[in-house]
Design goal:
The complex is a heterodimer of chains A (171) and B (152).
Chain A (H helix, E strand, L loop, with lengths): L20 H4 L17 H10 L16 E6 L4 H11 L4 E9 L5 H12 L4 H5 L4 E6 L10 H8 L7 E7 L2
Parallel strand pairs in A: 1-2, 1-4, 2-3
Chain B lengths: L7 H16 L8 E7 L39 H16 L5 E7 L16 H12 L8 H10 L1
Helix pairs in contact in B: 1-2
The chains are: A alpha/beta (171), B alpha+beta (152).
Chain lengths: 171, 152
Amino acid sequence: MRHQAPPSSSHFGWKKTRFDPLYTMHDISEPLTSISDLDPYQHIRSSIAEYSANFLPHQPGSHLVQGKYVALSGATGNVGASMLDILLRMDDITKVYLLNRRSKESAKASLTKTFMAKGLDRRILEERDAVIDYLVVDFSKKDLGLEPNLYSEVSSPSLLRFSIAYLFYFS
Amino acid sequence: MSDLDSFKSTHIAGVRHLIDLALSSPQAQPPRLSFLSTIGAAILYQGPCADFDVGIRGTQNLVPECPIDDPSMALDIGYGESKYVSERIIVNALKAGLRATVIRVGQLSGMSTSGEWPSNEYGIILLKSVLELGLLPEDVPVSQHCFIFKVL
């Protein structure tokens, strides 16, 4: 019998203990098939291992850089829109790459909607249009669904400048 | 509620692919990855010496602001687990040279200026349910009742 993680006793699980004997106990009449029978967190551990395999270590290069570059995902959401608003009001930001999934509505249109709903000044999107690069990405793809030249542009803008941050959020 | 598997192909893979993007940078230092996690990734944290009957609100159970390798602290629904998994992948990538920040965000309320609050979020759903049912959940601390009444 396969032991799953137990259901939460309350939504925030205040009563839950990590050594709950009810789900670590094994019925001795059944043979153990694997260690996962005893570990209710096996699905978590295996996912971490699966997506942590074979990182290619960073190779420090020698490119001299100027400017501040940010790639931001989730900009059409609650946190992302506020983040973008702040970024666009910083005068030392060179470029903001917006990483958005493909959708029927253009990223710019849904951004404008979010800005209006939140009471943010949407005029900043037009005023700072030159700073924003709208990129359609597919997070499930290794290359994020970007053309190779675009991928290396985000990885190292023009190879002369400096990208300072990737901000990533999902909900 | 969706399980961990439903977050794998896009969300968790997406974290991995952004890590790879950062590590591929030919600059002296790779760009910093800032990941917005959730308090749900650590909400069942029980302190370094877990005690069966000690409430989570005891001071010894403040969640330390550091990487913690303990899957039992993640809220046991897919969302909380997926954020915990993503945090751990980022921690594992530090050895490859990644520079990263993980921010565990709690429930954010509406905009300070307009009050706009996405209606599909937990906090606002709770408030709407209270209005609909005329009842308050038992789990909400009494001090919070006053706050809810004020909001309503």
